[in-house]
Amino acid sequence: GHLVLSTVHTTDAPRTINRILSVFDPSEQAAARLRLSETLLGIVSQRLLQKADRSGRVAACEIMRHTTTIQECIADPDKIHMMKEYIEKGREHYGMQTFDQHLTDLYRAGTISLETAKSAATSASDFERNLQFE
Predict the structure, then answer these.
(1) How far is 101 from 10, CA to CA, in rounded Å?
(2) What per-residue confidence (pLDDT) applies to 134?
(3) What is the pTM of this model?
(4) Strand locations in the chain, DSSP E?
(5) How far apart are CA 29 and CA 13, in angstroms?
(6) Is the residue at 5 inside a domain?
């Protein structure tokens, strides 16, 4: 096997998968999707955000790891939209997290401001609503 690291300018794991597959000819995408689902070990996406105290920046990270469920999401184009939910649910058991989960952690720890968290969130309104329920 080979370890391959790559930088892809996308905002999250599902978009990264779609971006990788977009480089293949449409006639090759199904086979590429299957190979990717079997070999991809993980995706780490990051955004650098201003710290609340303005002393620098902190990385907010989305972490997706290879699991059977994630493999199914990659292999089946009709399931890719479910990946975010599986990443959220896999936090405790697999160490995965969405951007919004990490933003919540950073905000609650006082590392970033609410304004910074909302501006970086996937959906600012969903982020604020989730803060009230957690």
Answers:
(1) 18
(2) 65
(3) 0.90
(4) 42-50, 57-65
(5) 17
(6) no
